[in-house]
Amino acid sequence: MELIRLATNLANLESVPIVLDQQSSSLVLKFTDADTVMAAASLRGSLGGPVGVWLEVDRDDYPAALAARDVATLSWLIGLDHVVIEARANALAHAEVVSALLTNDEVNFVNGVASLRGAYNRPAPPSPLTVWSYDGEALRSADRVLDEHASSWSVAGTLSIFS
């Protein structure tokens, strides 16, 4: 399994579909100067395949529950296959919250970053998403761990390869 993060900015927005078409692995978008969800949504209709998003969450300014709402909405606008949740602390716990909220079911969930009782986040994404956590060192999802092993430049920004 390999994931490629494209760290880009709005000035390179039109080049993102070009980079996506050149990749054989899953591409995950991270916008450095704009809201990643909004920028990815603006690519609706110009993406040739599914992409992922890389979101930075924290407990106060952008909590995991709000990230889950954004991801669910985005999944209905573009083909979305992966979500990476990055956090300065407790990345795995934040990713667990996002994952729990990507269903049509009532969510009753407690961990180190959230307490949800009778929560709903409908509609769920139209297809299953893989939710990853990133703690600054490795990507984790279920029993899979990916480490960054290379980076390069592209017409749209920096590509970081995780495998």
Q: How do the helices and strands line up, and which of them pair or pack?
A:
Blueprint lengths: L2 E6 L7 H7 L3 E6 L4 H6 L9 E6 L7 H12 L4 E7 L4 H10 L6 E4 L4 E5 L10 E5 L3 E4 L2 E11 L2 E6 L1
Parallel strand pairs: 1-2, 2-3, 3-4, 4-7
Antiparallel strand pairs: 1-10, 5-6, 7-8, 8-9, 9-10
Helix pairs in contact: 3-4
Assess the beta-strand content as a share of residues.
35-45%
Give the uncertain stretches in residue-range form. Answer: none
Largest β-sheet summary: 8 strands, mixed, barrel
Gap from first CA to last CA:
6 Å
H/E series: EHEHEHEHEEEEEE
Q: How many E-type strands?
A: 10
Please bin the fraction of helical residues: 10-25%
Cα Rg: 15 Å
Instruction: Tell me the structural class.
Output: alpha/beta
- Please work out how many helical segments DSSP would assign: 4
Estimate the global geometry from the Cα principal axes. globular
Q: Roughly what is the average pLDDT, rounded to an integer?
A: 95
User: How would you write the strand order of the largest sheet?
Assistant: 1-2-3-4-7-8-9-10
Keywords:
eight-stranded mixed β-barrel, globular, 163 residues, alpha/beta, 10 strands, two-stranded antiparallel sheet
